[in-house]
Amino acid sequence: MKLLFLLLIMGSSSIASTEKEMKGRVVGVIDGNTLEVIDDKEEKQKIVLAGIDCPDAGQEYAKEAKRFLEKLVLRQEITFTIVGKDRLGNNLAVLKVKRNVDPRVELLKEGLAWTAERNPLPELEAYRLEAEKNQKGLWKEENPTPPWLYRRQQSMMEAKSN
């Protein structure tokens, strides 16, 4: 039942869940939605927060998103569940820190993230819409570029220069 729920909320048939909540400690923040964690088996894992996407390096609010996530989770004990893999093979996870705080929700509330490009989770989308309505963070901009479009634009520019 839990796996079915995860498949439904993630909206992808390619998701394979470990269904096991793990414990760990955040040892690095790579960007606004990517972390390095030492898990309860003392193994280092790269984790991408499932269901959100933050501005990439070079975009407005990328540094703010990273700093915000660092303040929230760096050197903190966390619990996390791997819910699948992204297109690059990175682990997608849902995690909690300090009294059950979900960093995805906090990033969305601050206007420092978008919900996923495909099949955004309604419970996360509500936080994004509220931040947009209140013009928080990146929503202060007239027409902010989602990171997935930014990545595509960067790839096209690189292809043209080669």
Per-chain topology:
Layout: H1 2-10, E1 22-31, E2 34-39, E3 44-49, E4 52-53, H2 62-73, E5 77-85, E6 91-97, H3 103-109, E7 114-115, H4 122-133, H5 147-161
Parallel strand pairs: 3-6
Antiparallel strand pairs: 1-2, 1-5, 2-3, 4-7, 5-6
Helix pairs in contact: 3-4
Can you describe what's shown?
The chain has 162 residues and is an alpha+beta fold. The chain has one domain (2-161): Beta Barrel (OB fold (Dihydrolipoamide Acetyltransferase, E2P)), CATH 2.40.50. Helix content is 34%, strand content 26%. It contains five helices and seven strands; from the N terminus they run αββββαββαβαα. It has helices spanning 2-10, 62-73, 103-109, 122-133, 147-161, and strands at 22-31, 34-39, 44-49, 52-53, 77-85, 91-97, 114-115. The strands form two sheets. Strands 1-2-3-6-5 form a five-stranded mixed β-barrel. Strands 4-7 form a two-stranded antiparallel ribbon. α3 (103-109) runs parallel beside α4 (122-133). The protein is globular, with a radius of gyration of 16 Å. Mean pLDDT is 88; it is low at 1-18.
In short:
The protein is of the alpha+beta class.
Features of this protein?
endonuclease, globular, SNase_OB-fold_sf, OB fold (Dihydrolipoamide Acetyltransferase, E2P), two-stranded antiparallel ribbon, 5 helices, disordered N terminus, Thermonuclease family protein, five-stranded mixed barrel, alpha+beta, 7 strands, 162 residues, nuclease, single chain
